[in-house]
Specification:
The protein is α+β, with helices and mostly antiparallel strands and 528 residues long. It contains 19 helices and 15 strands.
């Protein structure tokens, strides 16, 4: 009987323990469930722009961002064309977005006047976007915020077109050089003139006709009109540059007259395509690709195989199909009598940048999350790959050439879009081409691209991003006057003895006031 009571007592104890354990377990699960619900509710929600009708319900890339940064993502859908209108509607209705991208510099200042943009502490950018900062400094120098700082404060994350700063180079057809007996790529004006003369007179295409010219250009823009020749005399028309603290314009410098003398001689000697006056960009391309021109200034990646940098079929590829062993001989410029050289380029700061809504001035935690995600989606290989290409081994693999190779069915862009794989506009503005083209270029050709790009010179309009009211009102008539007069000088319709009269008229038309304004703007914003 005692034994039975003991057994019953033990059974009761076990049952009680089980019940208590079950209650405890149930209570823990309840707490855990509530905790998970709280955690989900406490996740920060960030809003991004969906400008390309991308899949946002399920995406391996977006899921990776959510997991890594412990956030929820929302999207504002609109088109790239309608984004500005959508933004203005939201602001006018009092619903200021967390952020927006790439307003012009004029629009940037307008947003500041409206009081809708947040100040962005520089230390937050430096701490949370170190790779972005390094990228900016490579192209804008040690103070990458110089164009968007107002009253000592930063209100935008600068966006740049980094290949604009050194993109234009001078190329000679290497097969033509060899055909006419030149074994060395021209480096000086004298050597270039000798090559152009042979290109015109020595039948480099071997068709028995005198139908080739040394060089051509487009007569649409003064800054790209035989820029290498002007660069040989350190004169770069239609851009603002600084020399010894003074702002200058190349079109009225003495070096421009020397360059025009060279071009006039070349034109008289039939070395320049006479149709340069009416050429548009498409005409220049057509003449290069139909074997009519031996030298030309254009983007350096056009002179290389497409799979060396941006992908696609470039000028090189099209000509190599017709001419086995084809190559361009590429230079960053041509040396003048004093050893100077260069070509006009574009200021990479083409728009002000990414701006945050005023409300984020009081929510730096949220601003920091955005900064971290901008950095990761544009500069971090793991997130960049997942967002743009999907999961390695499932959606893509590396080819034997070191490029991205999609796995079927994701070789079809429609299938990728369905799976949420593609170019999401997270930051959508910070394109480091050296980083991004590592996925699109053949590994064996990357050094060629790097070495070719390194030849470029960085002669840019240092004031291009800054507001210049007087210049804005005057630039069209000054540019048109300069372009027409230069064409007249080159073709001989006007004698170069009238160059000083041209300069006087340029100043009389408002050029002197433009230079005064430019000097003041430089002194206030960029002078160290």
């Amino acid at each position: 009987m005692l034994k039975k009571r003991v057994m019953l007592g033990l059974l009761s104890a076990v049952m009680l323990t089980s019940v208590l354990a079950g209650c405890a377990s149930s209570e823990n699960e309840k707490k855990q469930s509530e905790g998970n619900a709280d955690a989900s509710q406490s996740k920060m929600k960030l809003t991004f722009w969906n400008l390309d009708e991308n899949q946002t319900d399920h995406s391996v890339g977006l899921d990776a961002i959510k997991k890594k940064f412990n956030v929820d993502l929302d999207f504002t859908a609109t088109s790239r064309e309608a984004m500005k209108e959508k933004l203005n509607l939201l602001i006018s209705s009092g619903e200021i977005p967390d952020w927006w991208k790439e307003p012009s510099f004029t629009e940037y200042d307008k947003f500041l006047e409206q009081g809708v943009a947040a100040e962005i502490p520089q230390e937050l950018i430096e701490q949370n976007m170190p790779k972005y900062m390094a990228w900016l400094k490579r192209y804008l120098g040690e103070d990458p915020f110089k164009y968007i700082r107002r009253d000592g404060k930063i209100y935008g994350l600068p966006v740049i077109w980094d290949i604009g700063i050194d993109g234009i180079q001078l190329a000679f057809r290497e097969d033509w050089l060899k055909k006419v007996g030149i074994t060395k790529t021209p480096e000086t004006l004298e050597e270039m003139e000798a090559a152009l003369t042979k290109f015109r007179n020595d039948d480099p295409d071997g068709n028995g006709k005198k139908d080739t010219y040394g060089i051509t250009a487009s007569g649409e823009n003064i800054e790209t009109l035989f820029s290498a020749v002007f660069g040989a005399y350190d004169a770069f028309p239609n851009i603002f540059r600084e020399k010894n603290g003074k702002i200058v314009r190349g079109e009225i410098e003495p070096g421009a007259k020397q360059a025009l003398e060279v071009l006039n001689r070349w034109y008289k000697n039939d070395l320049i395509d006479p149709e340069f006056v009416v050429n548009k960009g498409s005409n220049v391309e057509d003449k290069v690709l139909t074997d009519k021109i031996g030298a030309v200034e254009f983007y350096w990646w056009s002179f290389l195989p497409g799979n060396a940098f941006l992908g696609g079929e470039q000028w090189y590829d099209k000509l190599a199909k017709k001419h086995p062993g084809f190559n361009f001989a590429i230079e960053g410029g041509i040396k003048g009598p004093d050893g100077k050289y260069g070509i006009s380029q574009y200021n990479p700061a083409y728009a002000s940048g990414v701006m945050f809504g005023k409300q984020l001035e009081k929510d730096h935690d949220k601003m920091i999350k955005y900064l971290q995600i901008f950095e990761a989606t544009q500069f971090d290989p793991e997130i960049y790959e997942t967002l743009n290409f999907g999961e390695k081994g499932v959606h893509w693999n590396k080819s034997d050439k070191g490029t991205i190779e999609f796995i079927a069915p994701y070789t079809d862009e429609k299938e990728r879009k369905k799976a949420g794989i593609g170019s999401y506009s997270m930051a959508g503005s910070f394109n480091d081409y050296d980083f991004q083209t590592a996925y699109t270029s053949d590994e064996s050709l990357r050094q060629l691209a790097k070495d070719t790009r390194a030849k470029g010179t960085r002669n840019i309009d240092i004031l291009a991003p800054l507001d210049k009211p007087i210049y804005n009102e005057t630039q069209d008539k000054l540019k048109q006057y300069t372009l027409q007069t230069y064409i007249d000088f080159i073709t001989g319709r006007k004698p170069l003895s009238e160059f000083d009269s041209f300069v006087a008229e340029w100043n009389k038309m408002g050029g002197d006031k433009v230079l005064d304004e430019a000097q003041k703007i430089y002194d206030e914003n960029l002078k160290s």
